[in-house]
Design goal:
By secondary structure, this protein is of the alpha/beta class. Helix content is about 40%, strand content about 20%.
Length: about 300
């Protein structure tokens, strides 16, 4: 008699996805707010109904079999479409997106963002927010790939081909800073690029995945230390690892305290224009709320105060 294969529900796919993401039945149970035995029972029922062994239980922890992995990989696009459908239904019903992903350039301090988050949740208690960090071209990459709905502090310009809208936020002035004992610290007048290139540069790593890397503020040194954000970059410069460009507002207190000196580069870095950007055609109320508040001059002026 031929076995009649059962349909796999979205609930079952979400269960398998949780196990895969967390690496264990127990951790998946915590996310799904059930006891571990419920997960074990649900998996065994699914295996019996499908006539498949989804997990290899020969080791200390359950691992997906080849067929189990194939089932989950095939089901994930269905989960994504279901989530998109649910989001669209909520958007139609209320105008508010169920989830908004904000991508902050690493130079944006979190402190001025928190009051906005609090105000937003008062206006839209039904919407969840994810805040992520990107650097240099990474913000644009996150926006255009769909990993983010709104980017804050992205470098002006944007990728070729358009498909986005943006508004200016502010200009950041960058200075070339070094510790007082750096070999170039005692130099007066401008320092050539060739001289600067003789020493290690502390640079900012670009988090872009698919768009071309940007070279803004990147010293042409063969010896570099790439750091994930300007805070880490500042600490490396303070500790004497090398020199590098920093936002003036970040560097100046350390210059005033004698912990850093400013170098006069032969080719100074022009001010960087930052923007807030979103994909063209998006009209959700949550997105519009953030655009309106982020482009309020009173907020932008206080970010680096």
């Amino acid at each position: 008699m031929t076995r009649r294969h059962q349909r796999v529900s979205l609930e079952s796919l979400r269960l398998l996805d949780a196990i895969d993401r967390h690496g264990s039945f127990a951790a998946a149970a915590q996310e799904l707010c059930v006891v571990t035995s419920s997960i074990t029972h649900a998996v065994r029922n699914l295996e019996e109904n499908l006539g498949l062994t989804l997990f290899d239980r020969s080791g200390r922890s359950a691992r997906f079999t080849t067929k189990g992995r194939s089932l989950l990989d095939s089901g994930r696009p269905l989960m994504e479409r279901a989530a998109a459908f649910d989001a669209h239904v909520q958007l139609i019903a209320t105008g508010w997106e169920p989830l908004l992903v904000l991508s902050l350039d690493e130079v944006i301090p979190m402190k001025p963002m928190v009051p906005l988050l609090r105000a937003f949740f008062e206006a839209a208690p039904q919407t969840s927010v994810q805040v992520r960090r990107e650097a240099v071209a990474g913000s644009w990459d996150a926006l255009m790939s769909g990993r983010a709905d709104l980017v804050v502090g992205a470098p002006a310009g944007g990728p070729a081909g358009g498909g986005f809208e943006c508004a200016p936020l502010w200009q950041l002035e960058f200075v070339l800073a070094a510790p007082p004992d750096h070999p170039l610290a005692g130099r007066s007048g401008s320092i050539s690029n060739a001289e600067i290139a003789q020493y290690r540069a502390v640079v900012l790593g670009d988090t872009t995945r698919s768009l071309p890397h940007l070279s803004y503020g990147l010293l042409d040194n063969s010896l570099q230390l790439s750091m994930p954000d300007h805070g880490a970059k500042l600490e490396a410069i303070l500790q004497g690892i090398g020199c590098g460009f920093l936002p003036r507002g970040m560097a100046q207190p350390h210059v005033d305290a004698g912990r850093l000196v400013l170098l006069q580069a032969e080719t100074p870095l022009p001010p960087s224009q930052s923007t807030v950007a979103w994909r063209a055609g998006e009209t959700g109320r949550a997105l519009r709320w953030w655009i309106d508040h982020l482009t309020d001059p009173s907020w932008a002026q206080g970010v680096f105060a």
